[in-house]
Amino acid sequence: MRITVIGTxxxxxxxxxxxxxxxxxxxxxxxxxxxxxxxxEGLLPFHEPGLPELLRKHVKSGRLRFTTSYQEVGAWGDVxxxxxxxxxxxxxxxxxxxxxxxxxISLARNITKDSLIVGKxxxxxxxxxxxxxxxxxxxxxxxSVNLAWNPEFLREGFAVxxxxxxxxxxxxxxxPEDEAILRKVYAKALADGVPLITTDFETAELxxxxxxxxxxxxxxxxNAFSEVTEAVGGDIRTLADAIGLDVRIxxxxxxxxxxxxxxxxxxxIRALQARAAExxxxxxxxxxxxxxxxxxxxxxxxxxxxxVMLGSLSQSRIxxxxxxxxxxxxxxxxxPALDIAxxxxxxxxxxTVYDPAGNVNASRRSPQHHYVTSMGDAVKNADLILLLTxxxxxxxxxxxxxxxxxxxxxxxxxxxxLEARVWEDSGWSLGSIGRRYSATQVTExxxxxxxxxxxxxxx
Length: 459
Ligand code: UDX
Hints:
Blueprint: E1 2-6, H1 10-21, E2 25-29, H2 33-40, H3 51-61, E3 64-67, H4 70-76, E4 79-82, H5 98-110, E5 115-119, H6 127-138, E6 145-149, H7 159-164, E7 169-172, H8 176-185, H9 187-191, E8 196-199, H10 201-232, H11 236-244, H12 265-278, H13 287-310, E9 317-321, H14 336-346, E10 350-354, H15 359-365, E11 370-371, H16 375-379, E12 384-387, H17 392-395, H18 399-403, E13 410-413, H19 420-425, E14 429-432
Parallel strand pairs: 1-2, 1-4, 2-3, 4-5, 5-6, 7-8, 9-10, 9-12, 10-11, 12-13, 13-14
The structure holds uridine-5'-diphosphate-xylopyranose.
């Protein structure tokens, strides 16, 4: 069985390399010749732990190749996975389906033998049925081309392990024959006991967006409570630990902080609302708008806190530690950290950024900041430090260690990874998101009634 993968972004390259690792012959396609040239040399154009090694290994073995030619893909492959992007449409919440549609039409026109097209991208419900019509109208006569939907649940930073050993496999199919093909593709995972859920197209599409909506809701839920603990003086981490011990709730994805970002959760909850509205079901998904608002408010909170701790942001020198949307990634798409850096700059701060992997991508989007290659360079002249992405090297920071590199004793912990009491006992002013603080009343900023600043040991 020969496998092709259309689109060589995160999802596509990971899937292609993992399929090669499972022993399949794989051909990846991208319309970008520069990307194809780079991948053909075994060079990964983004940061993903474990993937560069897998890519190099299978490019070298000849089991994994890349092309820009749909003709080649259509004549060669038996199973074609579509992993192109479905970004948010400019100025709207809805997903831009033009890449998925274009890939499907190009495939259908070029497939010369009986094949199965398997969608993996995150799409609005109803897409597979719509694509079926596109395939029927564009395929060559006498060739049978079936469709299936098999959503991908991989997390950045864990893409390889999530692909090779997923929590579950979901396939939306119309025939037992198509299910049998996918069972062959995933034979190793199935033998290892990974559950397979076989269902219709619509359910398969919805499982993916429902999972992401649930995760976003969980994060916004704890962040809504963090607004309350900030106001009344509680500790959001202890609250999350306590409710998380209830196995029905679970502790994961209850980390309060500056909120969720990245290429998936924000766009997926907006696309889901847009699709629900198209279906006349806007009320069903309206709560997601509130989740989005809570999430964005956390970014404002970090800026308000910075303003309060400095008196004024104008002409202040601010060090940002961590600019990616999460650790172990170089991705800054919809990154809360980069958004906060930009807001601080817009209010007159001079911003210096250090991130172990995200500087290059961040500097392309926000060239107005200074980007430095060490934490020491970022903090040395700072008036205030904001820790915004929980990379391992920041988790091990100590008050003494940081104090040796900077003159300031003011820090905001945007991810709740520092022990507030330890830092405060060492003479630091620690502004935290959702944690206990001592009562210094805030005098400015849109959320002043909720904002209080930790200064010195708390009671
Ligand atoms: C997500 C889903 O987890 C994955 O299943 C799906 O396939 C794609 O979208 P990803 O975007 O890689 O994966 O990141 P994830 O680990 O889910 O984190 C998303 C965002 O939520 C990050 O900005 C992270 O910092 C934030 N987050 C996560 C929190 O703020 N608190 C938490 O407790 C967990």
